[in-house]
Amino acid sequence: MHKPIDTREPSQVAAEVQEAYLGMFPQGDREFMPMIFQWVVAWFGGKYLDYQAIDAHYHDLEHTLQGILCMARLLRGRQAQGQEPKLTQRMFELGMLAMLMHDTGYLKKRWDTEGTGAKYTLTHVDRSIEFARELMLSRDFLVEEILAVQNMIRCTGVNVKLEAIRFQNDLERIVGFSLGTADLLGQMAAGDYVDKLPILYLEFAEAARFSDGKMKAGGFFSSAEDLMQKTPLFWENYVQSKINREFLGLHRFLNEPYPDGPNPYVERIEANMARLRRELANRVSL
Questions:
Q1: Fewest CB within a 10 Å sphere: which of 54, 83, 227, 250?
Q2: How far out from the chain centre does Cα 262 lie?
Q3: Which architecture, in CATH terms, is 10-285?
Q4: pLDDT band at 219 (very low <50, low <70, confident <90, very high)
């Protein structure tokens, strides 16, 4: 069983990811994970170049930490099963960096004082890709490593056509799909996921106000209640299809034991959906 980790505490998540990394690659670079976790805390804390601290209230630092924790566990589970292509140390490192950067598109520059970063909902993937390019060039990463991270970030787009992403090799594709899987499961399995749905709605509503008509008022939903009503369907009709088919069922490497044991992330999501249905039913009956 996965030990409980407080995803509000970057140090706890960093320690768990480091344990997974060194468990897979005992001769790995012991400074790499602490370094990139220092980076992400700086990015989201307003201590990097001319970026403000994150002010989007759903897509915050904890959201990213939930994702990287899930992704590290998934890839460790996959490696334990001896799957091909075999995960390399460098591709794991790049995957972790990609996850930490996948929502940097919600960050605002210091001169950007109107609204919150949620206004960039429609463009945040492209903005994250550009953030990755600028940062990695400044840190002397190889061109192919920058492209790999950018391709992995592309996997998180809601309407992305995965077949259109020009992966450089099969392993890059697997790690990208692992990132996309963990981005969905990490947030939806959180204990406060149901409580944060109204906050997510406010992000969509703000994005709509700044979309120049590209999104209807309120975003994809007419109200927070509407979003909550549709969330179980989002899980059943979109997420489950996405992770089982498009992302190749990689979430099964989280099963304990593999391959047929229970999946703790899926179990927590199902519990969240059950809670949400109860709460909605109670509102109707009042």
A1: 83
A2: 22
A3: Orthogonal Bundle (1.10)
A4: low
